[in-house]
Amino acid sequence: MSFAVGTSEIAVFQIPSTDIWLMDSPGFDDTVVSDTDILQQFADELASCFDNEVKISGVLYMHAINEVRMKGSMLKNLRMFKKMVGEKNMGCCVLVTTKWGLQGIEVSTAREEELKKGSWSPLLANGAGISRFEDSKKSAVDIVMRVAETGGFIPKIAQEYVVEGKQLSETEAGREVIDDIEKAKAFHQEEMKMMQEEHLSAIEANKNEFASLLKQYEQESVAKLEEMERSKAELERTYEENIHKVRTSRVLRAIRNALGAIITLASGGTLGPWVVGLRAATDAACGIVGIP
User: Fold this and answer.
1) Which whole-number Å values give the CA distances from 288 to 41, 237, 292, in the listed order?
2) DSSP three-state, residue 96
3) What predicted TM-score, i.e. pTM, was given to this entire model?
4) Distance in angstroms (rounded) separating the CA atoms of residues 229 and 119
């Protein structure tokens, strides 16, 4: 399982000729996908692992060594990483630095030392390892095998969400997301209050164009607040509620795919119209549960 910035959806793929599977997770603070959706994706995949008795061997945390400083989004990802994995599980984690070829070795080595003594220090103290990805297949295999050969572990969020049956909002990672949502809500509410006051002032001063623009901003802020409330509600589902949705989605997707094959075989025959109608009904059901 890897944790990195740069992707917007969790992807799972197998290393050829092995029984090792990698789960590539997007980082938080994404510009396209909300933190709630990323956390929910992650929880769904972990639920699937437990449902299928798949062992989770370890976690790779990816970091570009050419980053001059820890930006806000990177610090947030580090906080979420610790809360989702759990401090006592750091022995099953490897902090992987990448992009060593993009700058001088002296600069990269100095930056690595800064990370070891700074933001990564608590992780290393709790048993996390550190590796350099050297832009080669051998380097990638060595890093993966370092965690693949562990005895497996249960990430903290899986323990809370799957084993203990908590709502996502009750997990440590979920509370972190909720806190961020509440801070953002407070900011937008204050901003909206100011815009409403300016909007009224603009109307009184007959500044119609400016008033119209402020009204548009106000509507956008309302939409953002509604989205934040939706995100909070999403986190209040339990594992049992969510795994039912996941399983239903898989069944409907399998039925739809099978019907697609039958339609191809039955096209032109007497079964064709009936199968097409059944496929349409399945498509509608898929749309209800959000299957693309």
Assistant:
1) 18, 18, 10
2) strand
3) 0.69
4) 32
Percent above pLDDT 90 for the chain:
25
Strands (E) located in the chain = 2-3, 11-14, 21-25, 59-64, 93-98, 129-132
Angstrom distance (rounded) from CA 278 to CA 203: 56
Summarize pLDDT for 1-48 with one digit per residue, the tens: 555 544 567 888 888 888 888 888 878 866 667 888 888 888 888 877
The whole-angstrom separation of Cα 60 and Cα 97 is: 10
Name the residue with tokens 């990370």: 115
Q: DSSP secondary structure string, 234-264?
A: HTT--HHHHHHHHHHHHHHHHHHHHHHHHHH
Is residue 139 a contact partner of residue 133, using CB atoms and an 8 Å limit?
yes
